[in-house]
Design a protein that fits this description.
Strand content: 25-35%
Strand order of the largest sheet: 3-6-4-7-15-14-13
Shape: globular
CATH superfamily of one domain: Antithrombin, subunit I, domain 2
CATH class of one domain: Alpha Beta
CATH architecture of one domain: 2-Layer Sandwich
CATH topology of one domain: Antithrombin, Chain I, domain 2
Structural class: alpha+beta
Helix content: 25-40%
Distance between the termini: 75 Å
Order of helices and strands: EHEEHHHHEEHEHEEEEEHHEEHHEEEE
């Protein structure tokens, strides 16, 4: 059976690959015969509110940290002081399978909501919903009242706070345990790494309970930096950490100017994926081929090809094929809408539809032609997330009192970058997310003066009062 090679320019494969990879990996536990995930729950209950903690902890009583290193230190205490939690990460969480199923279902629902919100972006689209969900879950640990409710509804966090974070921990550990040889700094035929970090203002008081939740469930110790007087070195340090965690595929995650003296906390997640195809393409079979764009024009691309037994499905307006990676622990699922049907198909895209497509896959001999591609995407997600239903978190009415015991903090922005490369050997993908938490307070303005009319000026020595120069400006444009 010939699998259509004229893919549409906004490649569904990329984002769907991320979602399906994460979904399939969660179904592969440490045991030889993992329990399959149950179907998505039909109702998402409102999360249980947790009481605002009252006890606070000063990040450190040690001397001010040494100048910020722009490289990740060899150990957590080198180059950065830590606001240490007394809680170690739970490396063997005893989580009900139902909780993990519910979290996966919610994360996948958010993934497709976010895809629909971002589909108006021009050109190719690629992001890691898992990275975004994880970074926002860490932020959610400090959310209270209506801020918490809006975030849970938007992110599809249907578990209570007490259940949600341990479930994230269990999923993270299960995902990364499947890397060949376990967690390793060396890239193998199948590599999946996930890392979290916190970067807090060194003299700001964060609640011990908040730090404990993130340490115990996300393995995230808080590096103490100085946003107030050294915001740019702090930004560089965070970006360097992200680059290190993603094999230098994600650089400059946080743009210049996004962190300033009002920043108090940055919560970051980084994910790196590399996997060889179970059935690699022969480079000698790669040839130039035509790729039909949505406007009817065609471009020439490097087209890989092979004849292999793949999982395949065909519906009324699409074809789908699934390419497994080595070890059968993950797969890229590619859906190709029929010619002229792309936008209609994309507008109706949902995870339940993808589940149906996956359920219909069956092994066929497929002569597959697939273009090689490499690209990056980057987003500021503040506007998108507000429009999706959580504006309170970005407003002056935000309640993140679970972080510091006050209502002085809000999310100033959420940055996300992603990279993907697909070739004859396999796939390399990376992504990172940074949530910027800032003080609501703004400088008090007593008087506003705009000099938009002629004026007199003088330059004087303030010590002696001597007028050194004097003049007037009647027309600055002369």
């Amino acid at each position: 059976m010939i699998f259509r090679k004229y893919f549409k320019s906004r490649i569904l494969a990329a984002i769907l690959a991320t979602v399906i990879i994460m979904s399939m990996l969660v179904g592969c536990g440490d045991s030889a015969t993992p329990t399959p995930l149950e179907p998505s729950p039909t109702a998402l209950p409102t999360p249980v509110q947790t009481p605002t903690p009252t006890a606070t902890v000063t990040p450190t009583s040690e001397p001010s940290p040494s100048p910020i290193s722009t490289q990740e230190p060899a150990t957590p205490d080198v180059g950065f002081k830590l606001a240490k939690s007394h809680v170690e990460r739970d490396s063997s969480p005893d989580i009900p399978r139902a909780d993990m199923n519910e979290l996966v279902a919610g994360n996948n629902a958010f993934a497709f909501d976010l895809y629909q919100a971002l589909q108006s972006e021009k050109g190719n689209l690629f992001f890691s919903p898992y990275s975004i969900s994880t970074a926002l879950a860490m932020t959610y640990a400090g959310a209270r009242s209506e801020t918490e409710t809006q975030m849970s509804d938007t992110l599809h966090f249907s578990l209570s706070q007490d259940q949600l974070h341990p479930a994230f921990n269990a999923i993270d550990l299960q995902l990364t345990s499947q890397e060949e040889g376990g967690k390793s700094d060396e890239k193998t035929d199948f590599t999946l790494r996930i890392a979290n970090s916190l970067w807090g203002q060194r003299d700001y008081e964060f609640l011990e309970e908040f730090l404990d939740v993130l340490a115990g469930n996300y393995g995230a110790g808080m590096r103490l930096v100085d946003f107030v007087t050294a915001s740019e070195p702090a930004r560089i340090a965070i970006n360097d950490w992200v680059s290190d965690q993603t094999e230098e595929k994600i650089k400059d995650l946080i743009p210049q100017g996004a962190i300033d003296s009002m920043t108090r906390l940055v919560l970051a997640n980084a994910i790196y994926f590399y996997a060889d195809w179970l059935y690699p393409f022969d480079p000698n079979s790669t040839h130039d081929g035509s790729f039909a764009l949505l406007d009817g024009e065609e471009v020439t691309v490097s087209m890989m090809s092979q004849l292999t037994g793949f999982q395949y499905a065909q519906g009324d307006n699409y074809q789908a094929v699934e390419l497994p990676y080595v070890g059968n622990m993950a797969a890229m699922t590619i859906i190709v809408p029929d010619s002229g049907e792309f936008y209609d198909f994309e507008n109706g895209l949902s995870f339940s539809q993808i589940e149906e497509i996956i359920a219909n896959l069956e092994r066929k001999q497929v002569r597959l032609s697939l273009p090689k591609f490499t690209y990056e995407s980057d987003f500021s997600l503040a506007k998108t997330l507000k429009e999706m239903g959580m504006p309170k978190a970005f407003s002056m009415d935000a309640d993140f009192s679970g972080m510091d015991g006050t209502k002085n903090l809000f999310i100033s922005d959420v940055f996300h970058k992603a990279f993907v490369a697909v070739d004859e050997e396999g796939t390399e993908a990376a992504a990172a997310t940074a949530v910027i938490i800032s003080l609501k307070a703004v400088p008090i303005v007593d008087v506003e003066l705009t000099i938009d009319r002629p004026f007199i000026y003088l330059i004087r020595d303030t010590g002696t009062g001597t007028i050194l120069f004097m003049g007037r400006v009647l027309n600055p444009a002369e």
